[in-house]
Predict the structure.
Amino acid sequence: MLEYGLATSAVSVGWSGYLQSLLSGFGISLSTALSAAPGALLGHVTCFNLPAFLVMMVIAVGVFHVKPTNWHLFMPNGWSGVYDAAAVMFFAFIGFDSVSAAAEEVKNPKRDLLIGIISSLAVRAVLYVVVSMVVTGIVPAAQFAGVPNPVSYALQVAGQN
């Protein structure tokens, strides 16, 4: 439980920060009750992190603003950039072990467990790659140097087109 709590909180807080940054670019700020950690209490109000919940729209919104010409310098930061991205992407794979923990409940573990683990890894990898392609399709990767919130920055650029 600690592993899942730590991993999901780190990822969702990061995405929430991106979305809040994007909204602030449009002059919108959320109350603490809608942007604090889920379950936190603000007086008698239980908080819910709405940006972390809504961040699933990145692909759906951004795909219409992709310019394939932005991908022409494929690895602008070289292998160093690949290793940095791999370290961040590692968080996307935390939790796939829950598939193996549920192995005792499958009818044919020899077949179903393999399918479950590989499928969960594949879906997460594909989603991460698609988000990366959408973001770098909107803004060339070289322009993200020093940008702490690349996803919201890309969506802000898309909104200005």
